[in-house]
Design brief:
Blueprint (H helix, E strand, L loop, with lengths): L1 H8 L2 H30 L3 H26 L1 H21 L1 H16 L7 E4 L2 E8 L3 E7 L8 E9 L2 H4 L3 E2 L6 E10 L5 H33 L10 E6 L4 E10 L3 H17 L22 E6 L2 E6 L1
Antiparallel strand pairs: 1-2, 1-5, 2-3, 3-4, 6-8, 7-8, 9-10
Helix pairs in contact: 2-3, 7-8
């Protein structure tokens, strides 16, 4: 028993396994300790997240090099075996390989970054983490109206960047064009209505205009795209039912819902303050006249009835 135990303890393979286990534990402990201390020195959320991801990457890299050094003598013999098994491994793990390739594409291709609002794999939300295999989103929408979180955390495989379009709401141009329509009754002062709408939209979202112009100028320089109008704009269309004003403006992609609320609230207050010069229209049906009814008495003996025509 003792010779066997002595042979087992002094076996080179066992020694390497013990060395690897101890080394990986030490590397993991150091990486975890450094990651935990980052929060005490870096207060910015975005910077802290990036530093922690970089530390984790360095930990994986250190573990890989440590394994390479310990098993460098055995790597030559594994080359042939890995080459033979490579085709089978590639077929069995094709989705995993595609996800890793997607992670590389996201990292190098500027598809999106942490903090961006995207639509990926049919899911819309904010990117809260980008892993080697999956991107984690805080989902927006579904049963919640507007661009508000619904509380679900969704993990989407990185391979989707090759399969479906990636919609980025906050990439090179962190603003969105949005519109509201205001129906006004015929007979209202349409000139006054236009002035009120232009004034309200300038006061509420005009602050975005200058910043959006600068961002759009960079877009024009970077891409083949027209120099579109960024300033707020009010247009009028007269249809069969009412005069329809459309208010178009740029807004921060995270503030669409609250901006609409403020615009509509101010518009209603302004319309009430015009003393009836402006009236909002609706689809309520109003009967303005009744058709003429002719009544003819028809009788046979003592029985009479009414007939209309």
């Amino acid at each position: 028993m003792e010779p066997f135990l002595e042979q087992w303890l002094f076996d080179p393979t066992v020694a390497r396994i013990v060395t690897v286990a101890a080394g990986l534990v030490i590397i993991a402990a150091i990486t975890r300790g450094v990651r935990g201390s980052v929060g005490r020195y870096i207060k910015d959320n975005d910077t802290r997240y990036r530093v922690r991801k970089f530390i984790s990457f360095l930990g994986y890299l250190a573990a890989f090099f440590f394994l390479t050094v310990v098993f460098r003598a055995q790597l030559g013999g594994l080359t042939v075996a890995l080459g033979v098994a490579g085709a089978g491994i590639a077929f069995a793990l094709q989705e995993v390989i595609a996800s890793v390739a997607g992670w590389v594409a996201v990292a190098l291709g500027n598809f999106y970054k942490v903090g961006d609002r995207v639509q990926l794999g049919g899911i819309r939300g904010d990117v809260i983490d980008i892993g080697v295999l999956r991107t984690t989103l805080m989902e927006c929408g579904q049963w919640v109206n507007g661009d508000l979180y619904n509380g679900r955390i969704v993990r989407v495989a990185n391979s989707f960047v090759f399969k479906e379009p990636v919609v980025n709401y906050s990439g090179d141009f962190p603003f969105l064009w949005d519109e509201i329509t205001v129906p006004v009754r015929y007979g209202s002062d349409h000139r006054l209505a236009r002035e009120l709408l232009e004034q309200i939209v300038r006061e509420e979202v005009g602050s975005y205009a200058q910043t959006a112009k600068e961002a759009w100028a960079e877009m024009v320089q970077k891409y083949r795209i027209e120099d579109a109008r960024v300033d707020p704009m009010v247009t009028l269309v007269a249809n069969d039912n009412w005069m329809e004003f459309t208010v178009r403006y740029v807004v921060d992609y995270t503030r669409r819902r609250i901006t609409k609320d403020r615009l509509f609230s101010r518009i209603l207050d302004a319309v009430d303050g015009t003393g009836g010069r402006i009236a909002l229209a609706s689809a309520t049906h109003e009967i303005v006249a009744l058709p003429e009814l002719k009544v003819r008495m028809v009788g046979d003996g003592g029985t009479r009835s009414l007939a209309t025509s």
